[in-house]
Amino acid sequence: MANPLRLYLACIRNTLEAAMCLQNFPCQEVERHNKPEVELKTSPELLLNPVLICLNEAEKCLIETSINSLRISLKVKQADELENILTKKFLRFLSMRAEAFQVLRRKPVQGYDISFLITNYHCEEMQKQKLIDFIDIEKEITELKLSVNTRGRLVATEFLKQFIYVDRLHIQHFPHQELPAILLCMRMVDNGSC
Amino acid sequence: MLMAYLERSSPTLKETLLKIYRAEKPVEIDQHFYEFGSIQYHIKCSISDSHIVYVSTSTLLETQGIVTVKETSGHTYEMIKKIAVGVIDIVDPPKLGFQLTLKLYLGKIPRGKEAIKIITRISEIQALILSSQLKEMLKMLNFQDDDSQAMNNSIRPIRIVYHPSEPFYVFKQPEKITAVFPMNFKDNADVVIAVSFFQELVEVGSRKEMGKAPQCNWSPIPPFQLRGEPVQDLTTNSGFVSFDITSRHVEGKRLDKTVWNLLNFYAYVKYHIKCSRGYIQRRMRKRMDSLVKLLVNTSLEEEAAQKENERCKNVKKRMKVPTSQLMMKERCKEMTRRVKTSKFRIKINGCARFRFSQRWISLPRFSAKPSNKSYTKLD
């Protein structure tokens, strides 16, 4: 991992560790209601200053804290069109199934790709460290892009090979060390192990 | 690798012919079906004449902007007759609306595995017709002199349409023939996946070991040879893929392979995009399951740890003590029992004189009932 990225993730981790000090706080507006104050923003005294951590213009993290809840919004790097498409697909896929994750917000905050809402109840039920580890999504997008490109390369190789070899018998003329590797890679890519 | 190999034989035609061939009783069939949107088949078999099957086929062939149902050339007829000599006959004229009609004699098909081979070859009839047309074009362009082409500057690229909205162009260049495919996709995600595939195709084609394959290029703008062609063909969202076919690729057996690969390039790319999308979906689902497990485990870990501690205590109680410890325990128990039974009288050998029948210490008795002894209150 590059050094700036490592520092960026370390900064987010440390900030989250400090910010995840949440406690139960009933709603001041409505009796017997308990609402995440960071979403409503009705009482300024319950809100802390939001923290914006930027790696560059394309990657940033916004952490908004309140007394009983915490909202984390991430903007993921999208270097090219393929990463753009994969990021949108993956994050939309997760957001549509937000109920399975409990801490995920169905709709990201404007200007960001994905948002999490963590309340004091989540902190009671789950371990803080694991929640922080869960938030590292960029690695998944990078791996997905790599496997799509690998798959495309293998398919292109197979297509062009058809022009060279008329019969399957001639396939033995292909460099021996490369053919088994290609077939193995294709199988691994299809199985999703690479 | 299955996905690189698109079958020449029509699966529906093959299945229907096999069904008729294997049927114990004569069957009545009059069936129309389409494949890939532009290839049409008609199969007819009647009970009265159950040993003969009529197979008609046609494809939409559009060349140079003129929509025609082109007649099959003589060379193609010869190729078709060679598929199964004695088993099929070409019906002239073909059925109305069709390019070719074959008369199939079921009784003359040899038994066993040979029958399946012959039926498979008959099912490849459409691939044979399409390939032969493109083969003739490529041969014609290949053997054309460069000088004659230079003199005749009005030679335009040949526009070939085997499937609606999927035209491709073939034109002659010095020492090679170039086939250009304008690529269009409806979905934006398909466009991105296709473009990344084309870039990989160009990169793989430029490798040393692929030197014998046709050189492949991708460009977002059309090549200048296509100037003057219809605008709707030159407006694309995924660029233009071109293959440079040399004389090496059109000689002997390679011609058939080259032609088949060019004809199925669109289908190949679409199939790859479909498989890639399916793969992305599977991968996302798998990752989602792992993330959910990670979160569920964090909440269950603490509960599990508490339960584990309680369980350990219970288990420890029920656990068997090792034999040596067991013996020690039994000895201790025996000792305590003896001490108790001796009424707290500890017998020490040699100390008989000090043995008392009474207790050494008399403990006061405490009871819930108030003492009967009265007391005087101190002032």
From TrEMBL, chain A:
One of its GO terms (cellular component) is Arp2/3 protein complex. It is found in: Cytoplasm, Cytoskeleton. GO terms for molecular function: actin filament binding. Its main location: cytoplasm. It holds the Pfam family ARPC4. Gene3D superfamilies: 3.30.1460.20. One of its GO terms (biological process) is actin filament polymerization. Coiled coil: none annotated. InterPro entries: ARPC2/4 (IPR034666), ARPC4 (IPR008384). Belongs to the ARPC4 family. This is Actin-related protein 2/3 complex subunit 4. Keywords: Actin-binding, Cytoplasm, Cytoskeleton. Transmembrane segments: none annotated.
From TrEMBL, chain B:
Keywords: Actin-binding, Cytoplasm, Cytoskeleton. InterPro entries: ARPC2, ARPC2/4. It comes from the Eukaryota. It is found in: Cytoplasm, Cytoskeleton. Coiled coil: none annotated. GO terms for cellular component: Arp2/3 protein complex. Functions as actin-binding component of the Arp2/3 complex which is involved in regulation of actin polymerization and together with an activating nucleation-promoting factor (NPF) mediates the formation of branched actin networks. Belongs to the ARPC2 family. Component of the Arp2/3 complex. This is Arp2/3 complex 34 kDa subunit.
